[in-house]
Amino acid sequence: MSRLDSFIRRLEAQRACLNAAARLIAGLPGNVLEFGLGNGRTYDHLRETLTGRDIYVFERKVAAHPDCIPPDDRLFLGDFLDSLPRAIAQLGQNTALANLDVGSGDEAASQRLARAMLPSVLQLLKSGGILISDQPVEDPALEALALPAGIKPGRYFLQRRR
Ligand SMILES: C[S@@+](CC[C@H](N)C(=O)[O-])C[C@H]1O[C@@H](n2cnc3c(N)ncnc32)[C@H](O)[C@@H]1O
């Protein structure tokens, strides 16, 4: 498979999981957390799909499309691992959906980062809340959910907090 095909399939998997997650939390109040603003693609999609939800964004350096920059009071600027304790203090355990889109070109480093973030993310994610991620993360508090039709396992990850 060409790198172009692989990139397209990853984005398709991401969009399918974002849409599935939005449906799964339809009856669950709570905020939404976006880890990794990047150029703002997934933030924009969440914003469009989940109108009315408070969406908080975590990013160390904002470089998104100008239309996709969150308001200052919804942005945790800095390293994820520094921002997470502040977010726990501010938000408590009231997150219905967290999207971890934290991958860089370095697969091992990306997985280490996601694993380091997970305990704090779980302190924010309420029971029944959905975690979707571009990295494999596991915890006894999480149950894996079936991926949307047509999405190959391992392209994106969809889990629910017990
Ligand atoms: C894959 S990109 C996110 C793409 C984005 N969701 C989109 O749709 O455009 C990952 C982002 O995570 C950010 N990031 C990576 N490691 C980080 C860290 N330790 N703390 C804060 N931000 C980090 C990077 O700056 C980058 O913008």
Give a brief outline of the structure:
The chain has helices spanning 3-24, 41-49, 80-91, 107-124, and strands at residues 31-35, 55-59, 75-77, 95-100, 125-133, 142-144, 157-161. It has 162 residues and is of the alpha/beta class.
Strand content: 15-25%
- Domain count: 1
Mean pLDDT: 97
* Major sheet summary line: 7 strands, mixed
Explained architecture:
The protein has one domain: 3-Layer(aba) Sandwich (Rossmann fold), CATH 3.40.50. Helix 1 (3-24) packs parallel to helix 2 and helix 3 (80-91) runs parallel beside helix 4. Strand 4, helix 4 (107-124) and strand 5 (125-133) form a beta-alpha-beta unit. The protein is an alpha/beta fold and 162 residues long. The chain contains 4 helices and 7 strands, in the order H-E-H-E-E-H-E-H-E-E-E. The model has no long low-confidence stretch (mean pLDDT 97). It binds S-adenosylmethionine (SAM). S-adenosylmethionine is lined by residues 36-42, 59-61, 79-80, 101-103, 113.
Q: What are the main properties of this structure?
A:
162 residues, alpha/beta, 4 helices, seven-stranded mixed beta sheet, Rossmann fold, single chain, binds S-adenosylmethionine, globular
